[in-house]
Amino acid sequence: MRPACHHHTDPCFFCVEHKRKAEKGIFGIDSITAEESREEPKPMILGLHGLFYTSEPAAMRVFIRDKLKLPYTDVGKGWLIFDLPEGDIGVHPIDENGQPPSGTHDVSFYCDDIDGTVAELRTRGVRFDQDVEDHGYGFVTYFTMPGGVKVQLYEPKYEKGPSKSKAGGKTSEANATAKEPKVAAKRRNR
Q1: Are the C-beta atoms of 82 and 71 separated by less than 8 Å?
Q2: pTM of the entire structure?
Q3: According to the model, what pLDDT value does residue 36 have?
């Protein structure tokens, strides 16, 4: 076990003192170089595979392929696996009334221009369940896919930054602060 850093809450290789000790092998672990201490391990999780359960699977696959225009892989027998250019996972608390129930999963699609995306999807026959609303974290609407599967579409107010493992740790708070005024101004001008 590495000793706790008096500068940080956990043992670390981020402060100069601990880097020097690590390089000398003082912690009783293999010696590392400064370059090695900055290397990130290859992630074990490479992506997210989501599932929609529907009473109309063929119709939903056609909807996603033809209306949402998502790229896909045909794995045979009518099964299409859709690819997304990027994704993220949010973890939300339940509310004071215990809603939604703990263990609930939700799927949202996001875009960078909610009004333009809604207009384009409408030309493809997508019907929206409500007008776009400001939910604080982003501008939100919903549409229902075949089989009664309701999905959120939103334009986030935060700007997705590179992950910590790739870019040294941009925080979502900094990204939210940077994008919010721009998005709000863009939204007002529509």
Answers
A1: yes
A2: 0.62
A3: 56
